Amino acid sequence: MRQLFSTAGVLAITSVLPAYADCSLVRLAEPGWTDLALTTAVTQTLLEGMGHETKTDILGIPVIYESMKRNDIDAFMGYWDPAMTTYFDAYRDSGAIETIHTNLEGAKFTWAVPSYVYEAGVHSFADLSAHAEEFDKKLYGIEPGSNDIMLDIVNKDAFGLGGWDVVESSEQGMLSQVARLERREKWIAFLAWAPHPMNTNFDIKYLEGGDDYYGADFGGATVSTQVRKGYVSECPQVGKLLTQLTFNVALESEGMGYILDDGMSGKEAARKLIASHPEMLDVWLEGISTIDGKAALPVIKADLGL
Description:
Elements: E1 25-30, H1 34-49, E2 53-58, H2 61-69, E3 75-81, H3 85-92, E4 97-114, H4 115-119, H5 132-135, E5 138-140, H6 148-155, E6 165-167, H7 171-183, E7 190-194, H8 198-201, E8 204-206, H9 211-214, H10 216-219, E9 221-228, H11 231-234, H12 236-244, H13 249-260, H14 266-276, H15 279-284, H16 296-304
Organism: Pseudooceanicola spongiae
Keywords: Signal
GO molecular function: choline binding; transmembrane transporter activity
């Protein structure tokens, strides 16, 4: 997950997307996070195999929700709960956006440290301030606009972290810094989440004690698929696919590694991931038809060379 959410562009909601036409075109959006780049690309791959055209726009979370409300976006694969509740609450009661399926369980999002730092006694948020010198009073986040919780903790002097610097860059920038400091066994505290290949590329430990800010179970979360109001009934075959697309942490971490470590595009990673786990197609495509009424499973297997 690329966490949390940039509000840049919230005022730039214009008619850059085509007006709703029919079910032949499926319009998706994702915020530029690697996990959602992957799951959205898997969705695109399957939809295109069914004969649909797809269009994906990379937009900030507020823009995605406003665009869905305006019927300019059909589906969004990445509602992280509870991390995104404050963004979704404004649309929940109106019914303009429908949450139709939990596509991932077992996700988490909080702070982590390298294992050697954990073994030195830093097990929780409350342990950080006693080691301010070792950490150089720095906390490492990702892109600006995505570190609001971390900044809130510092601004409130929670855990004695007032006056610490929040270093904002990007997902890759943060992980590059983790790699540099880990090689020298220097200390670093940073945003970490699963699914993500960082959990196997680095030896890290998640910190306890952040429940009031990130939620219980190390920021434990589910990820759900959302659609604009009425979309499932308007486009039942697409809707059925969206309610059957379920992932797991290991699967997503593998696919994200293809993007982050191997330099693949989202669609390249999606095709490789599906080819490596063809058994997933039996679940994802059960009872699904192509746009011209054929059984989707053999058509898509043929398209993927399986």
